[in-house]
Design brief:
twelve-stranded mixed β-sheet, 30% strand, 14 strands, 2 domains, 318 residues, Aminopeptidase, alpha+beta, disordered N terminus, two-stranded antiparallel ribbon
Length: 318
């Protein structure tokens, strides 16, 4: 047993609230502080608690957190969840575990990526973008950049068959909401004729880079902008000695094919689910810790997504 686990743990946890964005909208989410780290609370079939910034931080002492949550007289979540961040992918704990599938691009160098990790089609698309006159470069988060972001966000209310969270936001809203994590992000912009037509907000997690926000202009979709942005992101990761680039979660959809072509691989990392209550133990057995959507059969989820796409399309064409 670790020394920290033997220490007396607090008996009461104070439930606090913090401002954040949920599906692109301002919201106040509940959280608790444990040993100097912030753990947010997610309501659902079972109440989950997990490290707020787990893309960028590790849980310092999982056993101590578990004991703190179990011994709290006030707030009592059902399940505590945490994962092992890349590149630490070998399970180190005996708690109930599932594999979280991420889209990960190993980076040795830009040249290695260009010559060995992508197919000729992607290389041709990056060259096409250059020939079309697209310039991709690192940029500052200034007013000109934010105006370009706002214009891209307001091109269409629907993207990839669903409502786009940032559509309808004005300059001041975009500037405020996207400036929260500039201390750990690099801006990469793609320009055509002086106009911003795509960008990446590349997060630096110390061990790897994260494509926290990547988007391009619909009216310039013929210029292979996203391919050019990924190419520049690889170059920036090499410069900053980041050995992996993460395009968030892996999913079997049209975006997954884009990720494959750009060299991303489906990579599993251990995610642990520790039941803290009887409801939590039952929820884990029934799969409710992943939410109601994950309980649905794949066929049902596919049909619901198609109906959603058709419904949103009809709304935009009306």
């Amino acid at each position: 047993m670790s020394e920290s686990t033997c220490l007396k743990v607090p008996q009461t946890l104070q439930l606090l609230r913090k401002e954040t964005l949920v599906k692109g909208k301002p919201a106040k989410v509940p959280y608790v502080e444990i040993a100097g780290q912030t753990y947010t609370i997610t309501k659902g079939p079972v109440t989950m608690v997990g490290l707020d910034d787990d893309w960028y931080e590790d849980v310092h002492d999982p056993e101590m957190v578990i004991q703190t949550l179990k011994n709290s007289r006030g707030f009592k979540p059902d399940v505590f969840t945490f994962w092992q961040r890349l590149p630490d992918v070998q399970p180190r704990y005996t708690f109930p575990m599932e594999w979280e599938e991420l889209a990960v691009l190993p980076i040795q160098s830009y040249d290695h990526w260009w010559n060995n990790q992508i197919k000729s089609r992607v290389r041709n698309l990056v060259r096409k973008s250059e020939k079309e006159g697209v310039e991709v470069r690192e940029v500052a988060y200034d007013d000109d950049f934010v105006r370009g972001m706002t214009a891209i966000f307001n091109e269409a209310p629907i993207r990839q068959g669903r409502r786009f969270w940032h559509y309808g936001k004005d300059f001041e809203t975009v500037k405020r909401q996207f400036s929260r994590f500039l201390f750990r992000e690099d801006m990469i912009g793609a320009y055509y004729g002086g106009e911003l037509i795509g960008f990446v907000m590349l997060g630096n997690a110390g061990r790897y880079g994260i494509t926290g926000q990547i988007i391009s202009s619909i009216k310039h979709r013929d210029k292979a902008t996203n391919n050019a942005l990924i190419a520049k992101a690889v170059a920036v990761c090499e410069k900053k000695h980041l050995e992996q680039l993460v395009y968030l979660y892996w999913s079997e959809d049209s975006l997954a094919e884009f990720k494959r072509r750009c060299g991303f691989e489906k990579t599993g990392v251990p995610r642990y689910f520790v039941p803290l209550t009887t409801k939590g133990r039952l929820g884990l057995k029934l799969g409710l810790h992943r939410g109601w959507k994950e309980v649905l059969p794949d066929l049902v989820k596919t049909r619901l997504k198609e109906w959603r796409r058709i419904w949103y399309k009809s709304r935009t064409e009306a």
